[in-house]
Amino acid sequence: MGNSFTMSEAMARFFCWIAVLIIGLGGASCRENAASINKKAHKAFISARTEEAARLYSKTLRLEPDNPQAHFYLGWIYRGQGKTEEAISEFKKAVAANPAHALAYGNLGDLYLEKVMLVEAIDAYMRAVAINPESGNAYYGLGIAYEKQGDLTEAAKAFFEAGLLAVMTNN
User: Has this prediction a pTM greater than 0.85?
Assistant: First the structure.
């Protein structure tokens, strides 16, 4: 028989729809999960439809608040829009959800550097290179932060690593 449900399936669907109404997901299907929404968000992101991507990543996060990918890309969108504080917040949430997220740490370093928060920038870049020792961008940012701090010895070491990686990777 086509659409017959057991009592437990019917109850599950009922409570799902109630949750949709309470959470305010605005007509989202109960079959639509965080992974499928996140996939749609990523497609919108790589197609440069950032407003749509931001809306979908936010929707993903309502269903899955600790999704590091959604936090990271939402942070990237905010960064591109010049929303520095919102971007920092999202990148922090990305690394809280995934402490090995080197790109999120690198972006935090860049944003802290822009705000001349040098101690925080150095910390973020150091975490990025500890996770990914081949991150020339993180080493370069680290060199700038040390230089601005007046620590020319550490700046030279970081710039050397960035240059060495650029030569080795032909970048």
Answer: no
> 67 with 44: CB under 8 angstroms?
no
Check if the beta carbon of residue 125 is closer than 8 Å to that of residue 109: yes
**Helix, strand, coil percentages for the chain (3-state, nearest 5):** 75, 0, 25
How is residue 79 written in tokens? 């960064």
Listed in sequence order, the residues at least 6 apart from 133 whose beta carbon sits closer than 8 Å to its beta carbon are: none
* 88-124 pLDDT tens trace: 999 999 999 999 999 999 999 999 999 999 999 999 9
Q: What is the largest CA-CA distance in the chain?
A: 76
Rg (CA), the chain: 21
